[in-house]
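The instructor's notes for this session suggest beginning with a concrete chain rather than abstract definitions. Hand out the sequence below and ask the class to guess, before any prediction is shown, which regions might be ordered.
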Amino acid sequence: MINRRDFLKVGGAVLAGGLVSAKFNPVQAAEAESVSLIQGVNLQGWTLAKGDAECPDGAVNDNDIKTIHQTGYSELRANVLKRAIMAHNITYKKVINPALLNYFHSCSVLFRLPYLPQQDTSATTNGQTVECGIFVWDGPNTRRDYGMAFQWLINPWGDQEDPQGTIRVWNGTGWIHVGQKPVDTQWHTLKMAVDLKRKTTLLTIDNKFYPSQYSITTKSPTWGTTVDARFQVEAVSINPCPDNIMKAMHRVQYKNWKWLWEAV
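After discussion, reveal the predicted structure:
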């Protein structure tokens, strides 16, 4: 996890385009005023929700996504019924507090694929992406979502523009390519940080910096009226298009998460 002091030390260099190295240490609550830290081994108590999806084989419903909690980790599953759909599992932790727009947010989590995606249209397990994000929703005023997110493209056929292993970040309206990471089944450490006042971000995977982007996202009118922050992890099953013949479930495992917010 990244504390605000170290974030400010390296933020200028990273945002200027350099990939620098630094050691980040978790902030303990006693080190600074107005600091909160929550953490856990698995995602027990988090909320499961459907994200956007493509569904040639009927609408995506609640039965198409599931999050399973084990003692040492949680597993997100998308397209559980193995239909010709691209299902999106979002599992998130939310905190409601009107002051959260003035805070520095830092989070970390370990993630892994428990299988290797294959170029096999008959495979029963295949995925599109692994994703994570940290956002603050301003419901009473601007009605916009502020924060950052990353995406790891694991589709074994790749994307029209980006091959398998592409790392992308959210810019508020779409995903942009910022690097590559080979697809494997190892545990990886993700760290993200957002300074909402300065509109700056940091992203590291296994202590390697990737360019990141502060995003402002417009949401539907049905979103709530509170100020709330979300730390979210996600799994998107493989896109069945254009032939609609792939009917595979996607699985991603997460563990050892931490989320710190600090007044700025």
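Then share the key points. The first helix runs from residue 4 to 15. The two ends are 17 Å apart (CA to CA).
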